[in-house]
Predict the 3D structure of the following.
Amino acid sequence: MTRIGESLVQGRTGKRAEQVHRKRFSPLIAMLSLALVQPLAACAAVESAVPDKSFDVACNESIGFLKEYLRIDTTNPPGNETKGAQYLAEVLKKNGIEAQLFETGPGRSCVYARLKGNGKKKPIIFLNHIDVVPARADDWKHPPFSGEEFDGAIWGRGALDMKGLGIAQLEVMLMLKRSGLTLERDIIFVATPDEEVGGECGAGWFVKHHADLVKDAEFLINEGAFIDSQADGKPVHIDVGISEKSVLWLHLIARGNAGHASMPMPDSSVNRLVKSVSRIIDNPPQPTILPAVREYFKKIAPTVGEPLRSAYADIDDAVKKPETYQELLKDKMKSAMLRNTVSPTVFKAGYKTNVIPAEASAELDCRLLPGVGKDEFIGLLRDRMKDNTVEVSVLDWVHTSASAYDTECFRAITEVARKLTPGVPVVPTVAPWFTDSHWFRELGIASYGFEPFRIDAELLATVHGKDERVPVAVYKDGLKFLYDVAAMLCTAK
Ligand SMILES: [Zn+2]
């Protein structure tokens, strides 16, 4: 999930920063291909966190990794992520970082690696998932497992979700290792299978069996939010996910008498089920504005035109005005942060047109803001349904919490953004979807969705869609952004 366009690297100034970066990268240069490396002095004029020439070498190296990684088919189901895990572990090992594989099931493995620091600060985890969603090759312009470059982009299922970020995380570790700088924190790399179908056999398994390997961490960076950008690639706001909505899947069953459909029964199972669900649809949950969401809208207000600008600036007031609220709901993604949601998805009843069935059932996909309890929400739905004879049971419940955003990690992202994309706000978000971060928040680790890639609407549509790709320019700027954040968080000032 990201965007394209202008270079993220603009307006970097500051002699001190330049000196720091020079120091950080001289060992890197020594270790990279001599044919490609330029004298560091040649980079001194570039006011960047990373000298451009040596960075380009690292970037090209990791694009090579990404192409190879995309060629490994880890479509889930079934996953077969062990092949991807072995590839990642091999790259890490070849570059001097010991990696362990943990088998979570047949053909399925996690990767764990730790780049040691001096322990002055607590570790940060780079989390990514190895599996991808299915891709129908016939729908794609280029084969989904080609890993080839076309039109300035690297194509392949997972380029954005999320092999691209996984490789960027890995490369940042290699860059920091080669830099020879003193790391004040360990950087832990965790790549998992099974995220796309819930993570029980991936991050869930890892946290259950090997929490001891990561529980000393202070921060985690994972997928979940990206740099919201215009079609021309200009970044609009940099989203950092501090939480995700909890998942509550419900099963509703109405039971009654069966009968001949020529003689209608007003209280048939189907009638009562349909009416109950209909009442929920007609009375959706009211908006609830979390402090982070209030800040999100306030900060992005200047990036939109009227009338949304005024509405975003005072979102509490805006949701109270029916017309304005309806306008806000048109943006499905942003409005999902304003309220708990219910989507009826599966209906089952009957087997013959002229038979009234004795049973009718429905499934509801409910997504709850962090802090809302399962029982509390079921109670609210029962009130809406106004029919106690309809049974409600829980199919699935994934409870999420929120991470604080007055932390060193969030501040580092903000600080790097200030240098790389001056004037573009960094905002906390609550993702309507969920990721593997929740497994780690349960361990008390402040976990953030942070994909430093510029994503416009067209690119976003390729995630879980067709023609998924990451433009090279987007990847490159994202790698630089991630490196700067990691360097700020991990190296001695
Ligand atoms: Zn993903």
Observations:
- The two ends are 32 Å apart (CA to CA).
- Residues 129 and 162 are 7 Å apart (CA to CA).
- Confidence is low (pLDDT under 50) at residues 1-48.
